[in-house]
Design brief:
The complex is a heterodimer of chains A (390) and B (264). Chain A is mostly helical and 390 residues long. Chain A is built from 13 helices and no strands. The chains are: A mainly alpha (390), B alpha+beta (264).
Chain lengths: 390, 264
Amino acid sequence: MSEFIYPNEALVEWDLLIVVYPYITGLVAGSFIVSSLYHVFGLTRLKPVARFSLITALAFLLVCPLPLLVHLGQPQRALEIFLRPNVASAMSGFGYIWLMYLLIVIAEVWLVFRPDIVRRASSSQGTRKTIYSALSLGVSDLSEKSLSIDRKLIKALALTGIPAASLLHGYVGFIFGAVKANAWWTTPLMPIIFLLSAVVSGIALLMVLYAVVTKIRKEQLDRECFHSLALWLGGFLTLALALEGLEVLSMAYESDESWPAVSRLITEKIPITYLGVQFGMGSLLPLLILGIPEIVRLREQTKTTLRFGAAVLVLIGVFAMRWNVVIGGQLVSKSLRGFSSYSPTLTGQGGILMALVIMLLPFIVLALLAYLLPPWQEKVEPPRQRKLSF
Amino acid sequence: MGITRRDFIRVGGLGLLGLTIIPGRIPTALQDIVSPGTNQQVRTSRSDSKASRWRFVVDIRKCIGCGRCVKACKLENDVPLQPEYNRTWVERYVVNDSGEVFVDSPNAGIDGFSADYLNTKYQNLKARKSFFVPKLCNQCQRTPCIQVCPVGATYHTKEGIVLVDRKACIGCRYCIQACPYGARFLDPRLKVADKCTWCYHRITRGLLPACVEACPVGARVFGDITDPESTVSSMTREEPTAVLKPDLGTEPSVDYIGLDKVIR
């Protein structure tokens, strides 16, 4: 057999930026769901990171259209997606879904942080006072009645935010899963796989950020919270891994005319990033690492270190998953007779440097948001139990 | 950026003026090519085009892989000359005794397949059969590319031709991903999607697509399927035809005669 690709396939059109885009979107959906686990499902163990996860979601959400915008051939026409959408196109939904979700997240952030904003507006002076007064939108009522309305609204927003987050990331999966021309992409499982890996990556990101920020703040890590996050990570990771495995298993079992090409893609073209990083290092290994502290007796510090390590591996693994889908799918020629090749350039519109800058931006936005809206609440010492003495 | 194709057509279609000027626009490189395609009749014009349904027939048995169609297309439509940008191209298939398939399309076939290294490439192969397959946009009736375009920049004309509005395309390249035939590319100069239009600017004036004009053996036939007298009508009536990737349900408007099972 000879290698053949259609002549127009020599260029891989969706480059590194399109790998970064679903990665960032996934982190948004994942961190939002962590905050909802607390606000909606009342998982009080996650309270220490609930506020932080919300502004993390906002920071990444603000940046997520950027890689798409930079990638466009005609970025000045980007708003056309809002103005003249072709409703038959899955992609035309992006602007609306993103905007709706942004409004939900902003509203929830405002409600959650309102008491802090009002307190700061009254306690600070000068420019700071102006900023916080503006942020309070003129509402300074902090009575118990008003706060209880806030709590109800927060719960309602967090609740509607879950389907919105699912929509935002399920949609990203649909963009790929609905391309029947592409053997590696076309599967109805794709939206669900993207959704699960989004949640996985979001939880992992929060674990890493929480541990790092706590270190920087020279504070104590809430081990119970961290443990709880690790358990949720393990659970969602198991589901994601099972689905990703089932996807390729059914492809192999059905073995239609595209399978020889797909199997060569996996074993010859992307074995390191797919089998090695996505499945091995990014899924199986972290599951193993997360399992150890549950079974073996270890020092608390060691357990935390292991869980932290697992979260880092998961973040790398999910990035590899995005790469394997976006780039991998384009490597397989639609003639099913060969493969194109792609390696990102260092500079240029879709180069590594540009991708790094875009990946760095949400962290800068997050730092700004955390400065403006401090997500860490002062620890309230639980009332010490007096020993019973007779 | 100059005027777009649509503007060009709108202006040019105003009167007979267009019909007298356009033949003069056929690149001189093509004028000395004796083309059996020129006696094909195209009865469509913009006024009665609503009733017409254009069809393209590719006769694989006739194609000699000379690549003139590719060259004519690039000249006529100002397609970048680099091999990774093509509105049409020619593939060569060689099947050996043990059923192995060898496919190539050097430089998209623009220089033909007569170079020494191409002639000797398969000389140790026990070739059983071989054929050339011209490819172009299938002008699908159920188009994945139109479906996925987020801004509706690619659309069906009333005659069923799929065009790209260069002034509306945002360059997201989703249509390139969605086309199962690899018929689309991003124009590196304009940064918008581009593809074969069956020479829409010519066929709306009663002329043939440039590739049909240039084909010396009549392997590319173009015409109105609703006209029972047209060559495409008689060919599709009398010969067994097939389309590419029928299982994808795109309903292509290009019929192939002599399509082998190994062709994808």
